[in-house]
Amino acid sequence: MDRIPILQMGRALLITIQVDMHDQLALALEEDLTAKIASSGARGVLIDISSLEIVDSFIGRMLDNIAAVSKLMDAETVVVGMRPAVAITLVELGLSLSGVRTALNVDRGMAIIQQRLHDYEITDGG
Amino acid sequence: MDRIPILQMGRALLITIQVDMHDQLALALEEDLTAKIASSGARGVLIDISSLEIVDSFIGRMLDNIAAVSKLMDAETVVVGMRPAVAITLVELGLSLSGVRTALNVDRGMAIIQQRLHDYEITDGG
């Protein structure tokens, strides 16, 4: 298994990080994700990191990168499921993930994306 | 990472199988899932197997088991994202996954669960 699956749910894409990330995998994920955003027209990307016991600067940079690339393709990235201990460690390390939105769980992350779609439609329609 | 994460989305639970399954992991998943169904009151379980290039009798049995256990807890299991080659191999092996519902992708699987919730509410209300 050398790819992380990207699941489509309506206008959002969901990625669950379960395995240890390394350079190749992170690059493949970015490529797959951009292709999927383009082909599906998704407006939101949810990344679940509830499996991760450690988020180091490599993962932090990857999340930032994904968020930046998705934004250029007009999709908002929301990182969900961060463990409390991970949040504490991130702040201690000075990694505040400033470029990434976060939500407590998938439901709340999806609500953020739905809200954005809703706002977009109003702007679009008006 | 010795646990497969179970994500809650509304009244459904989503499991993405990304790693090679073995006995311990399958047992842990069953345990976690039943606990999560009980605590969340979920009525549906979506299992995405789009990452799997091979589904052998072990995985087949695990899926059957999960479906049977979930059913006892009044939650319907839908297996989604099966690759065409996997479907062909399963039939060749005589493993038809008769106890498990399948759907092409997460969206359709979710629709099945939503429909079931809808039917349930009508029955319940009447």
From TrEMBL, chains A, B:
STAS domain ranges (all copies): 1-113
Gene3D superfamilies: STAS domain
Region forming the signal peptide: none
Annotated PROSITE patterns: STAS (PS50801)
InterPro entries listed in its UniProt record: Bact_StressResp_Reg (IPR051932), STAS_dom (IPR002645), STAS_dom_sf (IPR036513)
Family annotation (Pfam families): STAS
PANTHER family registered for this protein in UniProt: RSBT ANTAGONIST PROTEIN RSBS, RSBT ANTAGONIST PROTEIN RSBS-RELATED
Protein known as: STAS domain-containing protein
Native source species: Dongia soli
